[in-house]
Amino acid sequence: MNYLAIVGTNSDVSTNRTLLQFMQKHFASEVQIDLFEIKDLPAFIEKDDLEEAEVDIPVKVQDLLDQISKAEGIIIATPEYDHAIPAVLKSALEWISYTTQTLKDKPVLIVGASHGSLGSSRAQAHLRQILDSPELGARMMPSSEFLLGKSQSAFDNSGSLISAEKVAELEEIFREFVLFTEITTELLSKRTLKKKTKKFSWQE
């Protein structure tokens, strides 16, 4: 099983990145998790000419699209800024929805870490709403969230989660997600009518 983990921030120091790095190491014997940094992506700007937008995708954006397409599932770690996801993550999702829409029907797991006690709960709800939009159409496992509060003190010097309880919680959620990925893949393989990706403009 091959997953792509998206670091949903442009901060050079982030406990969300640390969380994904921990997952990458902790589940290495079960799956492959590759990390992707969105901090170097250009800001999304809508173009009036859809044909131009189709051929003029920035190289770093195309790399993200290619890696999403190859992955069997996606993990997104988001911090919480003012009860919402960071602008840089919203911009990355806009690139996806406006170009290849390659997240459509892709299994997605959302995790999040924050310095406060709520562990990015509002941002995760915000992200679920965005991913459920028609132009993204991701498949999210119901009733699943991993919230890591007070994340500045949650890791030891080697980047491992200190709390055995949180590790056990993460293991349960992640293994359910692996099963969810398998079930979703099987379900989609039996679909008779394939949904078409279409170009669009929000100005219409």
Poorly predicted regions: none
- Tell me, briefly, the overall form: globular
Rg is 17 Å
Residue share in helix: 25-40%
Number of strands: 6
- How far the N terminus sits from the C terminus, by CA atoms, comes to 39 Å
Tell me the major beta sheet: 6 strands, parallel
Secondary-structure element string = EHEHHEHEHEEH
Mean pLDDT level: 90
Tell me the fraction of residues in β-strands, as a range: 5-15%
Describe this structure in words.
Helix content is 39%, strand content 14%. It has 204 residues and is of the alpha/beta class. The protein has a single domain, classed as Rossmann fold, CATH 3.40.50.360. The mean pLDDT is 90. Residues 1-151 form the NADPH-dependent FMN reductase-like domain.
